Amino acid sequence: MANSKRQLFQKRRLRVRNKLRKSNAGRMRLSVHRSNKNISVQLIDDVAGRTVAAASTLEPSLGLVGQNNLEAASKIGSTIAERAKAAGVEEAYFDRGGFLFHGKVKALADAAREAGLKI
């Protein structure tokens, strides 16, 4: 029986996360979620089980509501880097989830790196 797209996505997501957890113990996790209309990112402390910082195109203060393009992804990447620095986080590992590392996901990661977050 063939797996559905969702099942394949979940397998890919868990595979990526488990590999990252083994090799990056003690660092925060920068988790990305991309939908058809929005993109969001969270800086998660897995040890404490809490979100340290977050950014999303759904925030009215950023002026990106409903935008899901490369410019919005870049803006979200630089915003999360600023908020991470404000929280005292200098480095994190990039959890792309089940999403491929290209397009909006890559633009977000590159913008976060340029803003000073070590990924």
General description of the model:
The protein has one domain: Nucleotidyltransferase, domain 5. The chain has 3 helices and 4 strands; from the N terminus they run H-E-E-E-H-E-H. It has helices at residues 5-23, 70-86, 104-114, and strands spanning 28-34, 39-45, 50-56, 92-95. It has a 4-stranded mixed β-sheet with strand order 3-2-1-4. A hairpin with a 4-residue loop joins strand 2 and strand 3 (50-56). Helix 2 packs parallel to helix 3 (104-114). The longest helix is centred in the first third of the chain and has 19 residues, at 5-23. The protein starts with a helix and ends in a 5-residue tail after the last helix. The mean pLDDT is 90. GO terms for molecular function: 5S rRNA binding; structural constituent of ribosome. Part of the 50S ribosomal subunit; part of the 5S rRNA/L5/L18/L25 subcomplex. Contacts the 5S and 23S rRNAs. It holds the Pfam family Ribosomal_L18p.
List keywords for this structure.
4 strands, alpha+beta, four-stranded mixed beta sheet, Nucleotidyltransferase, domain 5, 119 residues, globular, 3 helices
Brief write-up:
This protein has 119 residues and is an alpha+beta fold. It is built from 3 helices and 4 strands, in the order αβββαβα.
